[in-house]
Structure formats: C-alpha cells, structure tokens
C-alpha cells in the first residue's frame, strides 16, 4: 500500500469524524486497502459487485451511491424488495456493512430498534433504513411515520421506482398518473393508472423532521451531497431517490440515467430539499423539457404516444399540466444559470488529480 | 460443502463469488479512443484535443510540447491557418467551436517568450542527412521532423531568407514579421539543421547531386510562379498578376495606380491583395470568385477557400465580393481597361460524372474597373526538377508520404498541386520524413491513424454546459494599417478558459461518470492498468452489459461492442 | 422480597430486573398495565432502557427485532389482536434466530370482539418457531420472564411468556420479587454472536432459495426441540438460586396410581387444583403443562403413563378440528401402548369464568355416553338456534 | 427423557380459612383500587391475598365489581367470587339491583356507602348491613369523593378481620405526604365511628 493510500484513508476517516463528530468504527476489512484493485478503490464500497439486479438497475445504483457516502460506520435495515432480494441470495451478500432484512413493511421500525439499541449500548453508529416505494409510500408508511414521529436518528432512503417491481410491476401509490402496470394496465376502458402519484414528501414534511429531500440517480453529486448532509443530522431524515427500473418502466437498460434526468428536466420529479418541512432548496431546471420527451422513452407510457387517440392526448396534456404545476409550485425555473441547476451540476471536467496521477 | 449457519446469515461481500459477467447478452463496454474531429481535420496532424487536455490541467508547456510534436510553427499557423479544426469542432453542436487557432498562436508565442525547448535532441554526427529544397513551411517542418526522427537536415533555399511564402505572400497584418522571425529562428537554430541560403536548385545545386550526397531529398519549393491567365486569349497590356503584386508591395510598399480594381480568384492571396489595395486607397475593390461565400446551405466543396476570419475582416473593410461568377470578357478602350463582363457560374455534376463549371447564358453584366488582377493560383518553377513535373505542371507526388517516381525523392507542400495551406505543407513535411526515417531504419511505412472519428452524435452533450466562445480583440477597421496585426492575443486566462470548453471528443476525461454510474460496480478506477489515457478498466467478471457507462460517457470514449471482442482475454 | 402486587406491575418489575436495553410495546388490553408500569419505571428513573413508544404492535415487534439484531437485550409485550398484527414479524424473529422475550397477556381473538382471557392469540402463532411458556400464577410469570431471557440467549430463539390476561395480569397477589443483585448474578449479560456490528458486517435475513430452505427450516425445528433441556435446566438453576421453580416443562400432582388425569396450561390449573381439593377421593392426576413450544413429548408420555382417561383442557379451539392442545396430545400419545382415552374440552373461551365446580362436571363427563371427543364444555348450546349447534 | 416433576401428593388444595369479598361500585369510583387496598392490607397483616376486577369493558359510571380473597395459604382458585363472605357497596344507588347480594354466604354482611339507616337496608336485603356516609367523610377529610378508605376502615374495624393498622400500612404503600395523612386521619375517624368487632363472629358463621 502506498503512502498515498494511507493518506487518503486517513483523510477519509478524518472527514467522517468531522461529519459525524464521532469516531467511526474501524472496519475489520478496511476499505481501499487490500490485494486487489477492487479493494483499493478510492471510495467506500458497501454494495459489492455480484449482486443480481437487472441490467441497468437504477435502484442498485442509487443504493451504491447512498452507501458510498454513508459508510462505513452504519447499519442498514432493508425492506423486502428488489434491493433485498438481489443483494442477499444466501449464502451470498453484496453488503459490506451490517445489514438486516426483516419484512416488507417494517424497515423503519426495525431501524428504530437498531437505533434504540445503539443508544442503549452507547454507540454512535448511524442507522439507515431502506425501502422501495411500495415499502415506503404504501405498506410501510405507518412504520415510517412512527419512526419520524419518535425522532429516531435514522436516515430513511426510499428508492422510488414507482411500482412494485419485485413482484412484477404492480401499481403503487407512487406510480405516476396514467402509467401502465400489471394492475393498472392500459386498455380500451383505461389509460393506465387512474390516480395520482402520492405527494409523499408533502406528508413527510408534515412530520416537521429536520431534513427531507428528493434526489435522482441522474444527479449523483446532488444525491451524495444530500446523503452526507442527512448523515450529519442527529434526528430523522428522509430521502426519496428516483430510481428508474428498466424492466418496469420498459426502457432500454442503457437509458436509466437519461430517463431519470428527463424526469427531472420535465418537472415531473422535482428535486427539492425541506428543512423542518419548509421548502429550503430546489434544483432549478435550466432547460425545461416537455414531458413527452420523458414519457416517450418508456413503454409504460406507450399508450399515451398516440396523437390520434383523444384519450391519449388528454392524459398526455394532463401529465404536462402536472409537470407545469410542479415547476410553478416549487419555482423550478430558477433565476438564470446556476452551478447547481440541472445543467450546472452535470458538468464534467478533466480530473486534474487523475490527470497528474 | 455448504454449511448453513444459524439464521442463514451471510458474510460481507460474498456476492463477489457470483460472477454476473455472464449476464451480458450481446454487448460489452470497450474504451475506444476515437479521433477528435479537430485532429482528423488538421492537415498538420496536430491532436488539438490532446494539447487542450494538457491545458485543461493547467500544463501549458506540456500542451505546447504536444502541439509541436506535430507542428513546429504554432505561432505561424495560429495566425495564418484557415483552421479546419474549428470547422470540424463538435462543440458547434452545443454552442460554437473552440477558438483553437487563437490558443495555438498564444501557445506558440508563449514558447517563444519563455524560451521553451523544442522536444528534439541533436542527431548523431553520423546520422543520415536529408536534403530539403525550400525553406518554406513545408521544408522547415521536414527539417524539424528529421530531428524528431534522429536525422540531420540540410536545407537549400533560393532566396536570401527562410520562410517561403510566409514571408513573401502573407501580409504582416496577418503575420507580423517579428513573430515569424522569432519562431523561424528558434527552429533553424536547432542543432542538426543546416540552412543554405541563395542556393537554387538547378542553378546552384542539382537534384541528382543531392540524391547522391544525401540519404533522401524532400522537395518543398512551393509555387513561385503565377498561373497563366487570359480571357479568350486576351490580356490587358499592363497585366499585373496577384502574387507578383503582393510580393512587390511587401518589398516596396507600392501598388500600380488604379481607382477601381477587380480581383479575379478566390484564395487567401486574392483576399490579402484586395484588403491591402483597399487599405492603400483604392476606391473600389471587387473580388470575383467562382466559389461561394459561407452560408447555412453552402456546400463545403463549393466554399471559398480562404481563412474565414480573413473573409469576415475583408467584408468589414468594404471589399465587395461577387460569388459564383467569372470574368467572361475584358472591356478595353484602346489599351485602357474600362471594365469586365462577368457571368454567373456554378460547379455542376456533368453527364460524365465529373464536376464542371457551367456558365449561365443571359447572366452577363459589366463591372466598371480600370484594372483586373488575376489571382487564380500559382505554379511550380520547374527549374532543376523538369523530369518530376506531372501534366498539370506540379511535382509528381503520389501518396500520403509525397513520394515521387524517383527513389528517395519526396515532393511536398504547394508544389504537389493538391495542397493549399501552410498546415498542409507542415503535415506533408512530417509525413515525408517519417517515411524516409522508416525506410532508413528498414521499417514499413508508418501506419496511418485509422481510428474512427468521433461524431457529435457520439458524445453526451448533457455533461457540457453552454459556454460562449472567447471573443478575441481585433483592430477596428479604421485603425488597420499595413503593419499592425489585426487580430489580438487571446491571453492566458482566456486560453485556459477556452481549453475548458474542449469536449475531449473520444478521449477519457477521467470524469468518473462510468465509475460513479455503474450499477454493478464493474468499473474499476486505476491509472496503472488503464490504457489510452483512461483511468478505468471494466471488470467483465461483473459487467452485465447494461450500457449506462457508454451512454453517459460524455466524450464517447466508452462504446458498446460485440462481446466477442473480449474473448481470449 | 414478597409484595402484594398486581400481575402487570410485577411483570414490569421483573423485566426491569433483567435490565433490557430496548423495550418497545404498544398498549392493548389486557397487556396495557405492563407497558404503563414499564413506562413509569423509566419515567421514575428506575429502569434505564430505550423505551420505544411505537405506533403499532407490528412496529413493536419490528423494533425489538432490530434492537436484538443489533446486540441489545430487548423486550416487548402484547395480546390478542396485537399478537396477530405482530404475527408476520414473530415468524421473522424466530426464523432469523434472534433472542428476545415477549409477554403475551393471553386474550381471545375477535370477531366477535372480546377482550377477555383465552389462549387463541398465542395459539395462532404457535407455528412461528418461538418458545412458548405458560404461567399458572404471577409468581411463575415473574420467574419465567427472567428465565426467558436466559433461555432465549442460550438457544438463539425468542421466548414468549404466556400469562392469562386479566386473570393474572390484573390480579394482585403476593409475589416474591428478586433483588437486582440476585438477578444480575443469575442472568448473564446479553450476548448475541451474530449481532450487527460495523467491525464484522454480517447480512441478516438473506433470501434463501429452495436449495437451502428445507435445511434452514430443519435447523430451526431442531433448535426449538433442543430447547427442551435448556428450559428444564434453566428452571432447575432458578430453583437452586431462588428456592422455587416454575415447573420445568410440566409438573404432575396427585396420586401415583391415578387412573384419570387432567392436563391444562396457565391459570386454569390453579382453579382445577382448587376444584380437585373438593374431590380428593377422585384419584386424579393434575398435569400442568408449562412448555407448549417446544412440546415435551417424552415428558408428556411419561406424565400420562398408567392413566385410563386423560382430560385435556384447551383454552382455544381450532374451528373444524377442536382443541389444539388436545389434538397435539393425541398425536403425542398415538401408538403409545395403553394410552389413555382422551377427553378434550375447551373451557373459559373469551373469559367465561371457570368455577372450581367444573372439575366435577369434567369428571362426570368421562362416563357420559353421549360425550363427543371434543366439546366446548361450558357452552350452553341451548342458546343457539338448532341449526347452529 | 425423564423430566417429569412430580409434585407432592395429598396436598391440601383448599383452605377452610379463605375469606372472599365482592366489591360493588361504579366505573371510576375506585372499586379495583378498593380491592387492591384490601388485599394489600391483608398482605401487610401477613395473609395471602388475591384481588382482581371483574374485567369489564365498562366505562365510567357503569356498575362494576371487584373481588378479593384472603387466606393464610396459597390461593389457587382463579374464578370470580360467587359466594362472598362480605360485600362492600360503594354507592347506594347500586342497591336498586336486588341481585346485589346474590351468593352472599349465610351470615355474611354488607357495608354500604350511604346516609340511609343500617336497618332500612338490612331489612331490604335480609343481611347484616352497615351504612356509612363514606363519600361525605371522604370529602371532609380528603377533599375528594372517594369512599374507599372510609368503607374499608369501617369494615375492618367492624370485622376485626385485619388490624386497622394493616390498612394504614397499605395506604402508606399507595399514598404519600398530605394525601396519606388525610387518609390516615380518615381511618382513625371512621374507626371511632363504628362498633369495633361488631361482625367479628361472622368469621365463624
């Protein structure tokens, strides 16, 4: 191991100490040390390769991004769902942090117990709770609400792929209006889901918790900043991460990021931050796209792409109106160019450090 | 043997035992270092993307060294080149091209100012020596690349000064002489280059003699003579042809008396001449060209072959340009010219499958002038090289390496007849020397860069915000003289800023997108194992072939390829 | 120290003596007083624990799951509907082999809504893989609660301490509460080897496919079965330390040559004992079954040896089958030579008061030529329309 | 497996000394508290005891009952008290239910919180009865209309079943400070108001 690695590691630990104001546990198998290149990657890898997510899985990506800036002194409670199934088919596990799966609807409660245990045992290890939209918006909502109300020191991350994907694409309360799923199929009598996507953040906001936010896999830097911020808060925090599902949304696997990006750019998935339930920050959209650009990439909205069908036109217009509403409501247009807007935050530059290496 | 533990818990990271790499159904990601279009378009062979990469990292000298690995005269080309690189720049699909030539000039000037050493070593005393005829850009480039290839160079120049048309045909307003001299002198001072002035082929030295005394001969005489010009056999009694007028003016500062002048032609010489005459006091200067002015629908094949900014400045300065026209008849009052009849003309595909210039009857009109100056191009002075001339009166260079039918003799630059820019001559010089060096070392011809070019569609523009091109100061029309350089210096700050606009087409930016966005953690960051300037390798044991990395690679450096590509690894 | 205490209060005190790290519970009649008493102990500074006031029994179970999985001694309590709402988590806790303790204040399960005592709730989760121990009185409930923590950590299994709702939870009686020093000496500190720990990051609750599931299930079954000697050993150890036991797996009372036996679980045993006192000449062997899961098959066969008749008292039924304990005991005795005839009766469902006189009725029923193999013994069928009898 | 724990045979299951009480009150009047107080007093006096409510889902104001058993041996019986030795009635409006004395053992007695005369009530129910204005006394001494202390004090004074000191000890376990003092004062006052040992013979009845 080179000095450089040691320095990086020390730096990382120092950063963690700074962030948490506490001493993180030294992992038994330290990160970016070891024989293989994989072991020496300059990031904390809590979600290893070899997991069985679909090609182009947005959720797998989101979870890895979250864990990178949450670990290593964390423990995870994971709701039943794709993430759980594809990471831990016994005897294998893709997790490099303590991880527990109990049930579909109780990750917030299990996490509450874990956090209580940490408090009782005088430890500072941060607890994360993970759930999909089914386990968060729907069946696990009560446990989540209880967790927030009891003010546990937990970051709850909802990987929102807008349907029950684990069981084969059934609608959830997070499924967008007019999306076709196996339980809200489009047909002569129906244009996909009849109801609206639940305004979960609004409900979370009503819990008056220190911090809640939305993020998207299309904007990893923003996502990771939010995770770091939330990790530093002593109290309940909530993050919903828009995570496309190529299988369920019916788009090509390589388009995962593109689809997620367009969802943000059209206004259907606003990226916002709330402090104590008050809107504190939004990611402005530099160039607003029509929702059609977003919808057209996905088979689940295929029935809307029929200009000759007045019902399709109506629903398409409806979705545009919903996006417009978000843009107005959250003031997503911003005021001029902003390094943190949808374009600014995406910009890449030649990595000087890498260039000199 | 599996042993099931209590509660069926799993140990950390054991998923690594499960290789998801066999999930790839058809394609896997590969790193493809495609040619940046600027590089593909550069006749001198520069890899602009490569030296902008150094600039992006703040390494100015390294950028210059990368640049001069191909083109030893950036200070010159940064002023005179029509920069096809900028025309090709993929950035035009986002906002506008990088100001490549301005940055090139700044780099060249920086090197002069700072005295950076050319990346060459003195050749061995007994190294083979190449004879180079002509000390214009092509010959100088050839000499320089001899050093780069461990050869010595001996230049034979007919004129008393080196520089060729850089000195004789390009006005100081475009290429100030101090800039030219500074760069030339640095180059000529390199050990291993011997310059013989006032030494004319055919007069002072013979080709056969050179072939005998030197390891190879590279002919770079340029085109010293004007092409013959007449209108149906008629010429004005006091015919002045363009290149001659230009040289005369640069030597003596005088033009023949005229109030209204028509220049017939469409190259840089024509434009330079128009602008100098206008500035000299000629009331009306009209350029009659068969080509087209730039416009949204202009066919590149049909476009007037001049440096775009020069054209722009000419129009600013009040030069009238009549496109798609030619001179059909000279109107004389006795020996005095009163006007020219012009007719509309266009290049059209003929029934023989070739392009022809077709004049359109009934479009004739008269432009009143008292002088018409032909500026239709130049030809080679064949002295000493008669048996190398082809039927178009150019030197018979036959391939990329400018080989002629005579063994060990190459003919480069304008004298080939199919070149027309300083950059092309510089490129020719390098290629010819590379071929010579290969032959001398018993190697095959150097392999051409066959990499595919990265089109704008191969990039992901999402990752590049709109950044406007740096506007470089220019002298106002009223302040333009015969000496002062019209275009200003871009300056360090702006040059570095401009570098940040480079899209790095086809090359790895080390932006981490692939590393960050791989859902399968199958991109490994490593400077050691990565090739082609990349910082990543794919762990195909785990890559499922989703294609996100390729889609989200800003520069198109990652592409999806048939999975068989990696078989046998 | 002996004190006159309400059952719930005594349980709260017992739990506090075990110094749990995390307590999570949601109130439900008749478990409420346990939660209230624990809350008060916390508020009064007498119990230093993370008390998580959850929003449902479901979360209560989940919280203790998470807490125990994180290496904390954890405790919860519930009853009836609450147990059923927990059901999913209860299976999960056991399947993950997580040690923790839960009190079930046994109560009927609706509908119809009924808050009174029977065993329908714990019976409904008998297959969850928990250890289930039944208590006859509040002293046993206190002692069993403390024992349960030790059994739990020794077996890596969760333990359900079943005590009859109201009949025990709301009854004040004289109870000897151990001192904290005694408990600390007897109960080792909590240890869970597989606890979540960033320095040894295991994944708990993995997906187990058909390739391994039967083996995992078998190991769970084996673990619960192997808890039998642990339960016994623990009670013996307790008896040595505290000069009183809780009856190990089961106890028998009465003449050795008895030909009739009565077996029951929980507080009913006391009433039956009281009733038998009036019929001393009956020669009846009273069997108190403490361990329902694991079911002590060998001990049951031995306890019933020599009997001609065995009356099995159930406090819950499985509609369409009959008594649950009765059916299980039939299965245990199947193929045993000279096995007694089983008379299976459910009594006291939904809190129907069980008078001591029922003993005589039960004994008489042995000779009743019209008796069915199973009956809801104290149901007055004349209240039902003929077609519903 | 030979793990059967066989208990002693011939163990006396039932004591002849057990005394059973039934307390009638209304939801919110503290019937259960009275039962617990009485059981606590028994415990303080060295007896075994058992007290429990009738486990109703009734709300405030509804008639409720609670039960107490006191003995000198372990109490196994868990059924409700069907044949009480004594009744404690916290509210004379409950007397409208004529079935209130059902199961009362012959020779049993009833103490009622009432301003009515003992004789009136005794006549109506054909049992020994003592009425005391417990609510008024409680208001006078404690300031709150809780009749338990007065009723129990009167009851214990008359039966001598438990020393009145035991009630004081039980009260000390439940109350502190001024409330306790007021309750103790009430006990003393009531003890002086009723004939001590008047019902003592009932134990032998």
From TrEMBL, chain A:
Residues 80-241 form the Thiamine pyrophosphate enzyme TPP-binding domain. Pfam families: TPP_enzyme_C (PF02775). It comes from the Bacteria. Residues 1-34, 170-191 are annotated as: Disordered. Gene3D superfamilies: 3.40.50.970. Residues 172-188 have a biased composition (Low complexity). Keywords: Oxidoreductase, Pyruvate. GO terms for molecular function: oxidoreductase activity; thiamine pyrophosphate binding. Residues 1-29 have a biased composition (Basic and acidic residues). The keyword Oxidoreductase applies. GO terms for biological process: small molecule metabolic process. This is Pyruvate ferredoxin oxidoreductase, beta subunit. It comes from Tropicimonas sediminicola.
UniProtKB/TrEMBL annotation, chain B:
GO terms for molecular function: iron-sulfur cluster binding; metal ion binding; oxidoreductase activity. Residues 534-563 form the 4Fe-4S ferredoxin-type domain. Keywords: Iron, Iron-sulfur, Metal-binding. It comes from the Bacteria. It holds the Pfam family Pyr_redox_2. This is NADPH-dependent glutamate synthase beta chain. The lineage of its organism: Bacteria, Pseudomonadati, Pseudomonadota, Alphaproteobacteria, Rhodobacterales.
TrEMBL record, chain C:
GO terms for molecular function: oxidoreductase activity. Residues 258-354 form the Pyruvate:ferredoxin oxidoreductase core domain. Residues 14-233 form the Pyruvate flavodoxin/ferredoxin oxidoreductase pyrimidine binding domain. GO terms for biological process: response to oxidative stress. It comes from the Bacteria. Transmembrane segments: none annotated. Keywords: Oxidoreductase, Pyruvate. This is Pyruvate ferredoxin oxidoreductase alpha subunit.
Automatic annotation (TrEMBL), chain D:
PANTHER family: PYRUVATE SYNTHASE SUBUNIT PORC. The keyword Oxidoreductase applies. GO terms for molecular function: oxidoreductase activity, acting on the aldehyde or oxo group of donors, iron-sulfur protein as acceptor. Signal peptide: none annotated. It comes from Tropicimonas sediminicola. This is Pyruvate ferredoxin oxidoreductase, gamma subunit. Residues 27-189 form the Pyruvate/ketoisovalerate oxidoreductase catalytic domain. Keywords: Oxidoreductase, Pyruvate. InterPro entries: Oxidoreductase_gamma_subunit, PorC_KorC, Pyrv/ketoisovalerate_OxRed_cat, Pyrv_flavodox_OxRed_cen.
């Amino acid at each position: 191991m080179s000095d450089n690695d040691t320095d990086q590691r020390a730096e990382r630990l120092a950063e963690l100490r700074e962030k948490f104001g506490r001493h993180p546990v030294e992992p038994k198998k330290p990160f970016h040390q070891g024989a293989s290149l994989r072991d020496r990657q300059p990031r904390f890898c809590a979600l290893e390769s070899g997991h069985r997510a679909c090609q182009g899985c947005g959720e797998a990506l989101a979870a890895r991004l979250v864990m990178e800036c949450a670990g290593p002194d964390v423990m995870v409670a994971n709701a039943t769902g794709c993430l759980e199934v594809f990471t831990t088919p016994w005897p294998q596990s893709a997790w490099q942090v303590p991880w527990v799966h109990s049930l579909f609807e109780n990750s917030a409660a299990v996490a509450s117990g874990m956090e209580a245990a940490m408090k009782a045992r005088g430890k500072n290890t941060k607890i994360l709770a993970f759930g999909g939209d089914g386990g968060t918006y729907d069946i696990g909502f009560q446990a989540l609400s209880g967790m927030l109300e009891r003010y546990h020191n937990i970051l709850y991350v909802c990987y929102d792929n807008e349907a029950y994907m684990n069981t084969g694409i059934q609608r959830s309360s997070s499924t967008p209006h007019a999306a076709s799923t196996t339980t809200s199929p489009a047909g002569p009598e129906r244009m996909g889901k009849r109801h609206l996507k639940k305004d979960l953040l609004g409900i979370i906001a009503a819990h008056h918790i220190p911090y809640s936010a939305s993020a998207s896999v299309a904007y990893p830097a923003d996502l990771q900043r939010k995770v770091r911020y939330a990790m530093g808060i002593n109290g309940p925090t909530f993050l919903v991460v828009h995570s496309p599902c190529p299988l369920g949304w019916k788009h090509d696997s390589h388009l995962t990021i593109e689809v997620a990006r367009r969802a943000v750019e059209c206004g259907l998935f606003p990226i916002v931050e709330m402090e104590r339930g008050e809107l504190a920050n939004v990611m402005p959209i530099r160039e607003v796209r029509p929702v059609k650009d977003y919808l057209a990439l996905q088979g689940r909205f295929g029935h809307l792409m029929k200009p000759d069908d007045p019902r399709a036109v109506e629903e398409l217009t409806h979705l545009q109106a919903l996006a417009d509403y978000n843009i107005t409501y959250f003031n997503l247009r911003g005021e001029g160019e902003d390094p943190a807007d949808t374009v600014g935050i995406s910009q890449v530059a030649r990595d000087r450090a890498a260039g000199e290496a | 043997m599996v042993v099931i533990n209590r509660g069926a818990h799993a140990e950390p990271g054991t998923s690594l035992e499960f290789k998801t790499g066999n999930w790839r159904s058809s394609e896997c990601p590969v790193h493809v270092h495609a040619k940046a279009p600027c590089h593909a378009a550069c006749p001198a062979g520069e890899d602009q993307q490569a030296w902008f990469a150094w600039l992006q990292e703040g390494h100015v000298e390294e950028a210059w060294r990368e640049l001069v690995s191909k083109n030893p005269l950036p200070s010159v080309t940064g002023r005179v080149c029509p920069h096809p690189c900028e025309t090709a720049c993929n950035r035009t699909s986002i906002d506008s091209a990088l100001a490549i030539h301005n940055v090139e000039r700044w780099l060249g000037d920086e090197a002069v100012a700072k005295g950076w050493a050319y990346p060459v070593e003195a050749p061995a005393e007994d190294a083979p020596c190449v004879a180079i005829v002509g000390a214009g850009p092509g010959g100088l480039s050839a000499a320089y690349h001899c050093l780069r290839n461990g050869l010595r160079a001996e230049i034979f120049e007919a004129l008393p000064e080196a520089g060729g048309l850089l000195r004789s045909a390009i006005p100081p307003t475009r290429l100030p002489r101090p800039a030219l001299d500074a760069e030339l002198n640095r180059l000529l001072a390199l050990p291993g280059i011997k310059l013989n002035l006032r030494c004319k082929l055919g007069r002072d030295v013979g080709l056969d003699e050179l072939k005998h005394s030197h390891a190879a001969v590279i002919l770079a005489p340029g085109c010293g003579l004007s092409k013959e010009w007449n209108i149906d056999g008629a010429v004005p009694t006091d015919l002045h042809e363009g290149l001659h007028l230009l040289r005369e003016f640069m030597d003596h500062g005088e033009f023949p008396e005229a109030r209204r002048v028509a220049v017939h032609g469409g190259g840089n010489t024509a434009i330079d001449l128009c602008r100098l005459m206008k500035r000299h006091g000629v009331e009306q200067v009209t350029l009659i060209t068969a080509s087209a002015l730039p416009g949204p629908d202009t066919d590149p094949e049909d476009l007037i072959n001049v440096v775009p900014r020069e054209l722009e400045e000419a129009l600013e300065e009040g030069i009238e340009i009549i496109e798609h026209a030619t001179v059909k008849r000279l109107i004389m009052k006795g020996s005095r010219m009163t006007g020219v009849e012009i007719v509309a003309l266009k290049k059209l595909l003929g029934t023989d499958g070739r392009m022809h210039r077709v004049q359109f009857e009934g479009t004739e009109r008269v432009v009143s002038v008292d002088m018409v100056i032909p500026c239709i191009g130049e030809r080679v002075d064949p002295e000493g090289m008669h048996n190398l001339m082809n039927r178009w009166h150019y030197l018979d260079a036959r391939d990329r390496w400018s080989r002629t039918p005579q063994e060990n003799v190459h003919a480069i630059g304008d004298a080939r007849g199919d070149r027309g820019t300083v950059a092309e001559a510089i490129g020719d010089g390098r290629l010819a020397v590379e071929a010579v060096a290969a032959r001398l070392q018993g190697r095959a011809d150097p392999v051409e860069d066959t990499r595919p070019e990265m089109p704008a569609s191969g990039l992901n523009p999402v990752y590049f915000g709109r950044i406007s091109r740096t506007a470089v100061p220019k002298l106002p029309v009223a302040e333009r003289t015969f000496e002062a350089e019209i275009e200003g210096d871009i300056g360090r700050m702006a040059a570095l800023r401009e570098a940040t606009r480079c899209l790095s087409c086809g090359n790895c930016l080390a932006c981490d997108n692939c590393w960050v966005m791989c859902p399968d953690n199958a991109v490994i960051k490593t400077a050691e194992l990565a090739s082609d300037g990349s910082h990543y390798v794919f762990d195909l044991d785990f890559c499922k072939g989703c294609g996100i990395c390729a889609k989200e690679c800003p520069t198109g450096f990652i592409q999806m390829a048939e999975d068989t590509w990696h078989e046998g690894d | 120290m002996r004190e006159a205490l309400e059952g719930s209060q005594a349980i709260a005190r017992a739990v506090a003596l075990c110094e749990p790290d995390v307590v999570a519970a949601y109130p439900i009649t008749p478990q409420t007083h346990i939660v209230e008493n624990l809350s008060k102990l916390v508020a009064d500074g007498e119990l230093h624990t993370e008390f998580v006031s959850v929003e449902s029994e479901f979360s209560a179970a989940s919280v203790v799951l998470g807490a125990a999985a994180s290496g904390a001694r954890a405790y919860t309590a519930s009853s009836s509907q609450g147990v059923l709402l927990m059901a999913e988590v209860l299976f999960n806790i056991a399947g993950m082999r997580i040690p923790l303790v839960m009190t079930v204040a046994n109560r009927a399960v609706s509908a119809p809504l009924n808050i009174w005592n029977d065993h329908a709730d714990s019976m409904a989760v008998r297959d969850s893989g928990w250890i289930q121990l039944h208590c006859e009185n509040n002293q046993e409930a206190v002692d069993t609660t403390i024992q349960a923590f030790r059994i739990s950590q020794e077996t890596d299994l969760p333990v359900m301490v079943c005590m009859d709702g109201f009949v025990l939870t709301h009854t004040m009686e004289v109870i000897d509460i151990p001192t904290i020093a005694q408990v600390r000496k007897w109960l080792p500190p909590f240890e869970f080897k597989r606890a979540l720990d960033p320095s040894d990051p295991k994944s708990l609750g993995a997906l187990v496919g058909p390739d391994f599931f039967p083996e995992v299930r078998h190991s769970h079954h084996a673990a619960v079965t192997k808890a039998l000697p642990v339960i016994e050993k623990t009670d013996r150890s307790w008896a040595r330390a505290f000069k009183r036991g809780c009856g190990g797996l089961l106890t028998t009372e009465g003449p050795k040559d008895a030909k009739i036996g009565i077996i029951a679980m929980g507080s009913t045993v006391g009433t039956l004992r009281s009733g038998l006192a009036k019929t001393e000449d009956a020669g009846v062997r009273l069997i108190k079954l403490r361990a329902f899961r694991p079911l002590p098959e060998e001990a049951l066969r031995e306890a019933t040896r020599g009997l001609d008749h065995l009356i099995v008292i159930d406090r819950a039924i499985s509609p369409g089958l009959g008594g649950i304990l009765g059916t299980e005991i039939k299965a245990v005795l199947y193929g045993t030579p000279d096995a007694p005839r089983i008379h299976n009766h459910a009594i006291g469902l939904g809190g129907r008061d069980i008078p001591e006189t029922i003993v005589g009725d039960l004994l008489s029923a042995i000779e009743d030529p019209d008796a069915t193999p199973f009956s809801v013994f104290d149901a007055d069928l004349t209240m039902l329309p003929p077609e519903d009898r | 497996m030979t793990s059967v724990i066989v208990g002693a045979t011939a163990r006396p299951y039932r004591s002849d000394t057990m005394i059973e009480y039934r307390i009638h009150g209304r939801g919110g009047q503290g019937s259960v508290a009275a039962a617990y107080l009485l059981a606590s007093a028994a415990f303080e006096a060295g007896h075994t005891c058992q007290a429990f409510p009738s486990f109703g889902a009734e709300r405030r104001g509804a008639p409720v009952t609670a039960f107490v058993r006191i003995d000198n041996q372990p109490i196994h019986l868990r059924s409700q008290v069907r044949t009480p030795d004594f009744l404690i009635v916290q509210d004379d409006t409950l007397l409208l239910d004529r079935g209130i004395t059902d199961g009362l053992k012959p020779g049993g007695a009833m103490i009622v919180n009432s301003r009515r005369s003992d004789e009136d009530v005794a006549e109506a129910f054909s049992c020994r009865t003592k009425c005391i204005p417990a609510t008024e006394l409680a208001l006078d001494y404690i300031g709150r209309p809780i009749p338990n202390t007065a009723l129990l004090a009167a009851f214990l004074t008359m039966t001598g079943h438990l020393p009145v000191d035991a009630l004081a000890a039980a009260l000390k376990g439940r109350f502190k400070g001024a409330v306790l003092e007021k309750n103790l004062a009430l006990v003393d006052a009531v003890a002086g108001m009723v004939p001590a040992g008047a019902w003592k013979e009932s134990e032998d009845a």
